[in-house]
Amino acid sequence: MESANVVSENADVVRIMSIHKSKGLEFPVCIVAGCGRKFVQDRDDMRLHPKLGLGIRLTDPETGIRYTTLPREAISIALSDSDAAEELRVFYVAMTRAREKLILLSPVKHLDSDLQRLSAQITHEARIAPYTVNSVTSISQWIMLCALRHPDGEALRSRIGVDSDCILRAHFTPWQIAVRYPAAQAEVEKETVEQPAPVDAALKAQIEEKIRFVYPYAVQTEMPTKVSASGLAAVQAQREGEETLSRPAFLGAKGMTPAERGTALHDFMQFADFAAAAVAPEAELDRLVRDRFLTPEQAGVVDRRRVRAFFQNPLGRRILKADRVWKEQRFIADIPSGLVNRDLCGEDAALPVLLQGAVDCMFEENGSLYIVDFKTDRCYDKAELWDRYGTQLKLYSEAMALVTGKPVAACMLYSFWLNDTVEESGK
Q1: CA–CA separation, 384 and 190 (whole Å)
Q2: Which of 132, 260, 352, 365 could be bridged to 256 by S-S, CB 3.0 to 4.6 A?
Q3: Please, what sign has the CA dihedral across residues 366, 369, 375, 379?
C-alpha cells in the first residue's frame, strides 16, 4: 500500500488543527477561532476532588428539594480555579504559535451588555483582579477585558461610553481591534448611524419641563408630624437620666452615675410634698422611700443641702405661696411649624406640628402661669445654661398657653448646681 501523504512543515498550505495538536509548532500567520465558546461548567449533584474529597447535594426527604452543601461549594471553587487555569494555559499555547501575525476571532451574541458588565469590574490596578479573571465564561471575555484597557481599544470603549481612565499606560504591542457584523446586520447598523431619528420638539419641551419641575411642598415633606420639646433645643444637654436604662447590680449608692443622681433629684422634686420638704427634707425622703416613690439608693444620693437651698431661694418661697402648683405636667399640643423651624415662612410656617413634652414645675400667680425647669448640670455660667435650654422653655411656654388658655408670664431655670434661678436675660 502507498504510504500516507504527509505534508511537510514548510509547505505553503493552510493547516486546520486543534490547539493541542499545534503545540510545539510555529506558523507565519495564526488564526485562533471559536474564542466565544462557553466554558463547560459542572453542575452535577456530586463532585470529586483529589484533595478535598467528595461533595454532594442533600435532598429533603419530605419536599424532595435538593440543597447544596459546604464541601460541595468548596470543591466547586477549587475545580473552577483549576479549570480556569487550564483554559488559560491552552489559550496561551494558541497565542504563541504565530511568528508574524495573530488573529483572534471571537463571536459574541450580546456585545454591548458583555462590555458593560466587564468594564464595571476593571480597576486602576496594573493587573486585572483574579476574581474578575475567574468569573468569565469564555476566552472571548478575557480578550475583551484586555482590549478595553488597551490604548487601541477605543472602538469598544466608545460603544459603551467608557472614558479612557481604564487604559493601562505601559509599553504595549499595537493591536487592530474592530467589530464586524454579518452583511445584513451591517447595513442595519449603517442606516441607524447615518439616519438618526428626527427630534420631536414638543416631546423634548415636555421632557425638559418635567425635569425642571420642583415640588412646591418639598419643605413640608421634611417636617416631622410629631416632635419633642427637648429634642428641638438647638444646643442642649439631654435630660438627666434619659440615657440610663439600667445600672449594673454591683453599683451601690456611691457608685451611681451623675445622670442617675440627677434623675433621683428630679424624682424627689416630682413626688415630694413641697410644704413638708421645705420643713424637713429628711422626713420627706423617708416617706417617699416608704411609699416606694424612690429606692433607698436614690434617696441616699439626693443632696439635702441643695433641697434646702431651693426652698430658701426666692423662687422656692414663691412656689410655696403660689395659688396653684403643677409638677411633671405632661402635654401634647399643636403648634405652628414656624416655632419648630425658624426658616419657614408663609403657609409652611402656619402648618401644625404636634409637640409633646413635660414641664418639671409650673405655678400660678394672679391668673398668670410661671414655668420652672429643674437642672442639675454642672455649669458655672448662667448665660451658657440659658443658651442650652432657652429654646426648650420657649416651646413649653407656647404649648402651655395653648393647653391651659392662660398667659405664661415667665419661664425660668433653676440650677441645683448654682443654687440659683436663671432667667432669659441670663441673670
Answers
A1: 75
A2: 260
A3: negative
